[in-house]
Amino acid sequence: MSDLSAPGFPEEEVRRxxxxxxxxxxxxxxxxxxxxxxADRDPHGRxxxxxxxxxxxxxxxxxGRLARLIDLGREPDYRDVELTTAVGGFTSPxxxxxxxxxxxxxxxxxxxQALARQAGALGLPLVIxxxxxxxxxxxxxxEAADRALLGRLRAYAGALPDGRGGxxxxxxxxxxxxxxxxxxxxDPAALPLLETGRLAFELKTGQGAKPGLGGMTVLDTAAAxxxxxxxxxDDVLGGGRVLRSSTPGTFTAEILRQQIRxxxxxxxxxxxxxxxxxxxxxxxxxxxxxxxxxDAVTVDGAEGGTGWAPGAFxxxxxxxxxxxxxxxxxxxxxxxxxxxxxxxxxGRAVKALALGARAVGLGRAALxxxxxxxxxxxxxxxxxxxxxxxxxxxxxxxxxxAALDRDDVWSPGFP
Length: 415
Fold this sequence. Notes:
Blueprint: H1 11-20, H2 50-53, E1 55-56, H3 63-72, E2 85-87, E3 90-92, E4 96-101, H4 109-122, E5 126-128, H5 132-136, H6 149-159, E6 167-171, H7 173-177, H8 180-185, H9 191-195, E7 199-204, E8 216-220, H10 221-227, E9 232-238, E10 241-245, H11 253-266, E11 271-276, H12 282-292, E12 296-300, H13 312-316, H14 321-331, E13 337-340, H15 346-354, E14 359-362, H16 364-372, H17 377-395, E15 409-410
Parallel strand pairs: 4-5, 4-14, 5-6, 6-7, 7-11, 11-12, 12-13, 13-14
Antiparallel strand pairs: 1-15, 2-3, 8-10, 9-10
Helix pairs in contact: 4-6, 4-16, 11-12, 12-14, 15-17, 16-17
């Protein structure tokens, strides 16, 4: 029946599943390590990303501009916008941080180090993602220095200016087994960060590209054998490739509270960050985290990227970032809300800030920029984003991101 067709139906996807079976639930395995996956801009043709659909709407009357004029003794312009922002207990030169990049092949090696160096030189807060130590090692015992966690930490700290930035280290279930936070907290290499209040630990409950699942990567059979005692392995990809999955952890409101209290008790000199996936109860989870003492709550929208995920997840699972922001605003957002999900330019960043975020995370954009130019790519990307942000904030008659609010954006149908 090879001549059978089904117009208007996803025929090729059905045929691919018929040909390859379980492997078709994922992107082509040969793309692992070279493609950064995430939701399409408009996967179903139903009006696109709701955050992108918002428009930034400057008013005619701008009392804030008059106040700035009086303060300066001259007409202000966009260069007078001050972008320095407190991000989770750190000081950042603009309301931006570099999102978690963990053990995926794309973020490992020279590229991960280049990204860490540039983020450090810029003074941007940097999150080191989960599973680096269980997969690549910490870096003390002869592991490949360019891939180990300690290598990223040193690359970042070595370029960091005084008084700016900070590192947040994620920990997953497998990281906890490897005692990652204990290793970092007791490491002399991290002491300068601890002494200056620029070290945080981030408890990860999930991520935008695959809510409810743990981290996933693709391994060859030799690597799978090496990690078999640490991770769940599943031979669903074929061709000598194995799916490696970490466990997402189990949370209730009380478990989350106790985890945060444990972090504050065991690591009193480190900041506490909590990362939430875009779950339907995201506002309640953010409230619990903030009340338990988290210095920052990160929400990763469904638009967030990843090195690897089942195809159904980026397209169909999790709340869009705009809806997460709406629910958080209705419930009262945490004091320091960080958000991520397809951030790369000033317009989207300003919209997120106007809807209640303190800062936005660069994930895929940061990695692509560092890949384009390992010396200065991220620097140039951030310079462009800063210029756009200054112009947009100034156009609204305001002169710091914290002054942005819900009235600064509009879209028909967006409450």
